[in-house]
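Worked Example 4.2. Consider the chain below.
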Amino acid sequence: MALKEFKLPDIGEGIAEGEIVSWKVAAGQAVKEEDEFVEVMTDKATVTITVPFTGKIAELKAKEGDVVPVGSVIAVIDAGAAGGDAKAAEKPAAEKAAAPKAEQPAAAKAAPAASQARAGGATQSGGGTATQAPPQPSSQQATQFVQASPGKVLAAPATRRRARELGIDLAQVQASGPRGRVTNDDLATFTNGHPAAAAAGGGGPRFAPIAIPADSQGREERVPFRGLRRKIAEAMTRSKFTATHFTYVDDIDVTELVEIRSQAKKAFAEQGVNVTYLPFVMKAIVAAMREFPMMNSSLDESTNELVIKKYYNFGIATDTDNGLIVPVIKDVDKKSIGQLAADLQNLAQRTRDGAVTVDDLTGGTFTITNAGNIGGLFATPVINFPEVAILGVHAIKDTPVVRDGEIVVGKKMYLSVSIDHRIVDGATGARWMNVIKATLEQPYRLLLG
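Applying the procedure from the previous section yields the following structure tokens:
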């Protein structure tokens, strides 16, 4: 028996942990190299990790729904079981000596960001006959397969944020969590011995879990709170308790824009492109950000630096059957109305089909959420942290407007922007919105940019 531990690898997104969404294998199952192994959800996306070598699954150490730190053992594989790679035993001694460096997990493949948990996985036979396993230090002792990132301290995002608030270097904290993970209790213990750190942290929110008693008559359904829904909850909580939200609302007379969009829709219909109002809104946002660049920034809390971005990648909050997902349209400033319309149409379809990639979901500098097709007057959206702001686009409605001293029927819509008041003052946010308003009320301005 040649047991090898498989540790959750650092997928390269700067994450500290991942949630086991679904196992593609089962204990005792024979597997081949490159078979699908496990689906893991991070803060950015869901990725599928493949089997690193042929063998048999000896043990799965994490359950679906478990959140595990990077570098923790999630499975043990018997590389010497039936179906093992015969070629491995025939390698020259020099190649075997170099094996620890070459033996890395297969690259994580980008999987649909909205993949739901699926139980188990299709059983595949490794085939072949049993072969002699490569020499091991001990045939019964599992050997390390994936190393944790050198020098990396394991801690949940909330714990890392709390440590930054307290001015604590996590490397100095004695960890008591599983596999050397620093917990909030460890931070509390550390601050008890370092009063200055406790004073620096202030009184951030700390809540005990709330238990809801079960209905004795069985009139309730309990569904595991995990997967994408839990990631959304974590992101919203982090945003609300980190960014200091304020919301500014204005109404826009889009009568001329409605006419221009109608003409553009007809012009692009033959190409199979549906031109919505969003491309016009996106271009107006770029114009406003050029005048007020702080609206396209973020605060790097680890270095206490404002990062002002000179590229314009806009996330579009998309409602799917699996929850809210925010794919990103890149380089908005470099694209025409028609190109943006085509990109929006393509990206929305792939998002709802669960076919977006990690690249589609990362790199955003600003987010737009559009509830106009659902209804309502306006909303106060939650910032897609660590971005500085999010714009809510709402329904266009017939309404009385005053033109040349007369009341006529016009088209109006509300825009609502939530802004991180730590970074942007209210006056700046209002002036930024004024630029968007002027641009959308007089769409010819888009030709001047």
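The first strand starts at residue 3 and ends at 7. The two ends are 68 Å apart (CA to CA). Compare this with Example 4.1 before moving on.
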